[in-house]
Structure formats: structure tokens, C-alpha cells
Amino acid sequence: MTEQALDAKPEGEAKLAQEDNPSQEDKVSFEDNSALEGKPLNPEPPGSMAVWVFIYAELTEFGLFFILFLVAKAHFPEDFSQGPAKLSTFAGLANTLILLTSSLCVVNAIRAIKSGKPRVTVNWLLLTIAAGALYCGVKYWEYGRNEALGISPRDDYFIAAYYYIGFNHLLHVLIGMASIGFVATLTALGFYDGQNHEGLESAATYWHMIDLVWIIIFPLLYVLH
After folding, report:
1. Beta-carbon neighbour count of residue 106 at 10 Å?
2. pLDDT in tens, 48-71
């Protein structure tokens, strides 16, 4: 009995030592959990704070436009019920697909710069600019069609709102194209890389805002009667 008790004692001490000194795998797991706990649960948004202030201001502007649009629609229901039928749904749908495609190009550009591929990034940014130019081309055709059909901003309140919101958004597309062209030039010159690309993210975020606004404009002007 004494020998068995003596044999059991070292085994008990070994278990205690094992509990006090975790294995290497346990240490790695503990370090991984600690690293995860140290990461922020809410990462910072892409781009600089300045561009987000600008974006919020722009969204507020468009929000006021949409509110005024709905107020006018309530006061002049006949103009707004017949208005969308006068417009080219094809042009609106085409520009929707164009801008969605441009957003995909911007996403791929950000992925490329994070992977350290500046040449690929520039190519995607140039495709974004090309999509913006195509959007402008469709708008030019659409306004020419309206003129040929005798559609004028003086016709009624809906057409006036359509031109005002459309021209305002077109202006933002041109600003976005200039911004994308600027960051594409800086990327080609080596100013941005996988670690430093905040300016590129700022321009990309602004472009996504332009697309988001158009997603609201399209059904509001071209679809909802």
C-alpha cells in the first residue's frame, strides 16, 4: 500500500505541473485569442474623415431634393403620375447598369492596391472613368431625345424636377471622374501602395456615394408613376 501511495504521488504532482505549465499549443491558442481581443470590433471606415464629412453633406443635399420631390408630387399628382412615361426607361436602366459596373471596377481597384498591384489598380480605375464617360454619353443622348420630342423643363413640375435632379447628379459624376482620374495618376506615379492608399479609398468611397444616389433616382424618376 505504501509503495502504491508513493507511485500515485508523483503522478499527481505531474498533473499539477502540467496544469501550471500549459503546452505550446495552449500558449499559441491563448496568444491568438489575445490578439483577436485586441483588435477593434468596429474598424475605421475607408478613406479620410474629411471625405466622409463631404459625403454626409452631399447626402443631406440629395435627401432634401427627394423630400421636395415627394412634397411636389403630393401637390401636383397629375404631373408626377404622367411624367415617368415621357422619359426613356432604357436610358435610366442603362445608366443604372453602367454605374453598378463602375462600382465593381472601383472595388477591384481597391483589392488590387491592397495586394500591391499598382498597374492593375490603374487599369481598374481607368475602366471606372470609362464607365463614367459612358454614363455621360447616355445622358447626352437622353437629353437630345427629350429635345427632339419637345420635352422641356417648362412643361410641368415633374419635368422640372427631373432636369434639376438629373443635372445635379451628372455634375457629381463629373466630379467623381476627376477624383478617380487624380488618384489613378498618383497611383501610376507610385504615391499609393498596399500600406498607403487612404486617398484612393476616399475617391472610391465618394464614387460609391454617387452610385447609391442614382439607385434612388432611377425608380423615383423613371419607374414610379
Report:
1. 25
2. 677 788 788 888 888 898 899 889
